[in-house]
Design goal:
With 89 residues, this protein is α+β, with helices and mostly antiparallel strands. It has one domain: Alpha/Beta hydrolase fold, catalytic domain (Rossmann fold), CATH 3.40.50. It contains 2 helices and 4 strands; from the N terminus they run βββαβα. Strand 1 and strand 2 form a beta hairpin. It is elongated.
Length: 89
């Protein structure tokens, strides 16, 4: 099951760090894994769920919200709505 590091611009133009977990075959569908408010894409739970979904045939994007983990930006300038905006980005 391949895992790739990716980066993309978030809602505040900060560079967000992510991982793309993909199944061995073409994905049957895609999921975006939104971890808890102050957690990381690399938390044990996020990695476990993403890999389980990939084994079941789903492609999964998990990423660090603005100001968390390996993503750029200042966490102090974020809130629930800005995290939702990062999900849309």
């Amino acid at each position: 099951m391949p895992t790739r590091k990716i980066e993309f611009a978030g809602s505040q133009q900060a560079l967000l760090a992510g991982r793309l977990d993909t199944p061995e075959q073409a994905p049957r569908a895609w999921a975006v894994f939104a971890h808890c408010f102050t957690c990381s894409k690399d938390s044990k739970a996020a990695a476990y769920v993403s890999r389980a979904l990939a084994r079941a045939g789903f492609g999964v994007l998990r990423f660090d919200f603005t100001g968390l983990g390996n993503s750029d930006g200042d966490f102090a300038n974020t809130h629930f709505s800005s995290n939702v905006d990062d999900l849309v980005a």
